[in-house]
Write a structure and sequence with these properties.
Elements lengths: L4 H6 L2 H12 L5 H18 L9 H12 L5 H16 L4 H5 L21 H11 L6 H13 L3 H5 L6 E2 L4 E4 L9 E4 L2 H15 L12 E10 L2 E15 L4 H10 L9 H12 L4 H8 L4 H20 L12 H10 L5
Antiparallel strand pairs: 1-2, 2-3, 4-5
Helix pairs in contact: 2-3, 3-5, 8-10, 8-12, 12-14
Length: about 350
């Protein structure tokens, strides 16, 4: 039954949030739906059964201040208020609170950083650390594929063997954050080796079906020596489900590698930076990486120009003008006087 904006405005926030999520099922990829669900957790806890029409600008500002006191980042706060805006917009209420002259709601300023890139030494140290322990194998193979394909973590988790062609060396991303993320990516030898290793791992548990996930769900049985892990064995392998997360392993190995706080998603930034430094055009980067924001492309254009500058500087080696004053020549031409 169609609901009017008046009836929607009377809804408790919890019910409005449920209806919003139901309406978004056909619009969003599973990973995006999961993210919105997470963003609603604190909003639900705060607004609970409060009718939408009673949520004021002051109330929203107080919520944001409460979250900020708990060291929540501006980007997360903006994302939470973004989903609150979309819930309230269904009842045509957001404009009333956002434009309150006494308490206008404006997005918080976010840091200018767009991701952290690793030096080549850092990258090699991270990968060498990742192979040290069996329990880090999945994180290591995922990192290798990200660095060689630009694929996001959610895209790797959604990969099925039907998407992988090791003969023609192509992987097809069919499930992404947006439609622009659907793409086919050529595979490097390193990426093929990582996928072959994942395939061998899957085959050790039984026949592999095209619908099985590349990063299949599994359980791990650890062997301890007092409190130290001395071995691990993969058990409860379920190729019909993808692995939930490699976050714990990632945090542990990045700390061990001397890179605490380095996010898995930053590997994608590293990969795209390498593409830009190779001289790849914006269209080529987008064809490989999928959706890249204008802000990101501008950053990579700068990286590309710096790479070109370093390259042409190499041309000047051994071609110096000796004692000849090139400034004198240039200045004379500007003033219209020929040098003697």
């Amino acid at each position: 039954m169609h609901q009017t904006s008046t009836s929607l405005a009377r809804q408790p926030f919890a019910q409005a949030a449920d209806d919003y999520q139901t309406a978004r099922k056909l619009e969003l990829a599973p990973a995006s739906r999961a993210k919105e669900k997470q963003l609603l957790v604190q909003l639900r806890a705060s607004f609970k059964q409060e009718p939408l029409k009673r949520i004021t600008a002051q109330r929203i500002i107080e919520y944001r201040a409460w979250r900020a006191e708990r060291n929540v980042r501006p980007a997360t706060l903006n994302a939470e208020l973004g989903i609150l805006r979309r819930v309230m917009n269904r009842a045509h209420l957001w404009a009333r609170v956002a434009d309150d002259p006494d308490n206008p709601i404006r997005p918080l300023k976010e840091p200018e950083t767009i991701g952290q890139a690793l030096t080549e030494d850092d990258k090699q140290r991270l990968l060498k650390t990742a192979v040290m322990r069996p329990e880090w194998e999945t994180a290591y193979l995922a990192a290798t594929l990200c660095l060689n394909t630009t694929a996001r973590g959610c895209e790797l988790k959604g990969l099925q063997w039907v998407d992988v062609d090791l003969f023609d060396r192509i992987v097809t991303i069919r499930k992404s954050k947006t439609e622009a993320g659907v793409r086919a990516i050529p595979l490097t030898e390193v990426a093929c080796s990582a996928l072959a290793r994942l395939r061998a791992r899957a085959e050790s548990f039984g026949p592999v079906d095209p619908a099985h996930y590349v990063f299949a769900a599994y359980g791990t049985r650890m062997t301890f020596n007092d409190t130290e892990i001395v071995g691990s064995k993969m058990v409860a392998f379920d190729p019909t489900r993808h692995v939930d997360s490699w976050r714990t392993a990632w945090r542990t190995l990045t700390k061990k590698a001397g890179l605490p706080g380095f996010r898995f998603h930053d590997l994608r930034h590293c990969a795209i930076t390498s593409l830009a430094e190779s001289g790849a055009s914006d269209s080529t980067i987008m064809a490989i990486a999928g959706h890249v924001s204008r802000r990101m492309l501008e950053r990579y254009s700068h990286v590309r120009m710096e790479a070109k500058r370093k390259a042409v500087e190499a041309l000047s080696k051994g071609t110096g003008m000796g004692g000849y004053d090139t400034n004198r020549d240039t200045n004379s031409q500007v003033s219209g006087v020929r040098p003697n």
